[in-house]
Design goal:
Elements: E1 2-6, H1 10-18, E2 24-26, H2 29-33, H3 39-49, E3 54-57, H4 63-74, E4 80-85, H5 88-99, E5 104-109, H6 112-120, E6 125-128, H7 130-134, H8 140-153, E7 159-162, H9 168-177, E8 181-184, H10 186-192, H11 196-215
Parallel strand pairs: 1-2, 1-8, 2-3, 3-4, 4-5, 5-6, 6-7, 7-8
The structure holds erythose-4-phosphate (E4P).
């Protein structure tokens, strides 16, 4: 499963990138608004750090406007992926952009029917939001499972990005289901390698090694 970081913060991106396991970045208007810098310039800086796909979201709600914005965002760097909401206007824009060879990430996906239609329109990625479904007492992971089943039924190549991940179990479950990508906030990435028994084990090995040195 590919690992994307879900942030627009340069320090977090640099840190996660230094682990050597980062495949891409997803941003959204909320994440960019936290950085208090001009969004296009911020996206350019991100694209200079990570060579994999960088999702940048359009704001317009009408397909013509979406395509126009997508063209501008694409000029930032060749690894920019255009993030478009799962609406009928988004569907039209996705068809146009996919015919022009522009990569897209269909965001705010909350149903399998949305996922199937955007795949037909040529979406490169689909982003089901698991955390936001859990927030309203619906099992977010069931959506990822259902999309995986439907895509496999028809050999659909649109890649599933499990998004709105809130904790390590979301990440693990996404891998069990066979999600192509998980986009994960830095705070969660950092928890993925943590285990108290690893820390206790290191502590004991270090102490025993020291004892051995002292007794030689
Ligand atoms: C990713 O593409 C989304 O922007 C992100 O995962 C949303 O996460 P949130 O529901 O925690 O805001």
């Amino acid at each position: 499963m590919k690992l994307f970081i879900d942030t627009a913060n340069l320090e977090e991106i640099k840190k996660a990138n230094s682990y050597g396991v980062l495949d891409g970045v997803t941003t959204n208007p909320t994440l960019l608004s936290r950085e208090k810098s001009e969004p296009m310039a911020q996206l350019k800086k991100i694209a200079e750090i990570v060579k994999g796909p960088i999702s940048a979201e359009i704001i317009g709600l009408e397909s013509g406007k979406m395509v126009e914005e997508a063209r501008k965002l694409s000029e930032i760097s060749s690894n920019i992926v255009i993030k478009i909401p799962c609406t009928t206007e988004g569907l039209k824009a996705t068809s146009m952009l996919s015919r022009a060879g522009v990569k897209t990430n269909l965001t705010l996906c909350f149903s399998s029917s949305q996922a199937l239609l955007v795949a037909k329109a040529g979406a490169t990625y689909i982003s089901p939001f698991v955390g936001r479904l859990d927030d309203i007492s619906l099992e977010g992971m069931n959506l990822v499972r259902d999309i995986r089943l439907i895509y496999d039924n028809y050999g659909i190549g649109t890649q599933i990005i499990t998004a709105s991940i809130r904790h390590p179990l979301h990440f693990l479950e996404a891998a069990r289901i066979g999600s192509d990508v998980a986009t994960v906030p830095f705070s969660v990435i950092d928890k993925l390698m943590k285990h108290p028994l690893t820390d206790i084990g290191i502590e004991r090995f270090t102490q025993d090694w020291k004892k051995l040195q002292d007794n030689l």
